[in-house]
Automatic annotation (TrEMBL):
TM stretches of this protein: 12-27, 32-52, 58-76
Protein topology in the membrane: Multi-pass membrane protein
Domain of life, per lineage: Bacteria
Organism: Solemya velum gill symbiont
UniProt keywords, alphabetically: Hydrolase, Membrane, Protease, Transmembrane, Transmembrane helix
Gene Ontology MF terms: peptidase activity
One Pfam family, short name: NfeD
Name this polypeptide is given: Membrane protein implicated in regulation of membrane protease activity
Length: 149
């Protein structure tokens, strides 16, 4: 039964697979399905130009998939995408340079500050409640601060 299904495969089936992969790419957080879509599109062109068995078409698709993924990965390693806002998903990095007031005393290097609508864990020199501090860095969800005289 499956043999008959694959025997009736045409070039436009590969084109549909390519479009489906590209649609899946839209909903994917990583650039992966795009490369499979390109491989399926090239397989469609090859199937249109050359008479091939379905086994050869699948083999071509598999080889092109691996090749396109490897080529894409190496391309993006050499040409990374630069963002206009590189700290967009790193809230702590965006806060560097801002000033805040100590909410919970910094004792033995740890305390809390209130900044905006959020309370942050901080590390830095010991400071009393109400002392002003400047954020100088972040590590995960913990901010590094220095005292302001």
């Amino acid at each position: 039964m499956m043999e008959g299904l694959f025997d009736s495969m045409n070039w436009w089936h590969w084109l549909i697979v390519a479009v489906l992969f590209l649609i899946m790419e839209i909903f994917s957080p990583a650039a992966f399905f795009m490369w499979l879509g390109f491989a399926a599109a090239i397989t469609a062109l090859a199937a249109l130009a050359i008479e091939m068995s379905w086994e050869m078409e699948f083999l071509l698709f598999a080889v092109l998939s691996v090749a396109s993924i490897l080529i894409g990965r190496s391309w993006f390693k050499r040409h990374p995408i630069e963002s206009e806002q590189p700290a967009l998903n790193e809230r702590g990095v965006e806060l560097v340079g801002k000033m805040a007031v100590v909410e919970t005393p910094i004792v033995n290097g740890t305390g809390r500050i209130h900044l905006g609508e959020t309370t942050w864990k901080v590390t830095g020199p010991d400071a009393a409640t109400g002392q002003k501090v400047r954020i100088i860095g972040s590590q995960g969800s913990t901010l590094k601060v220095e005292l302001i005289d």
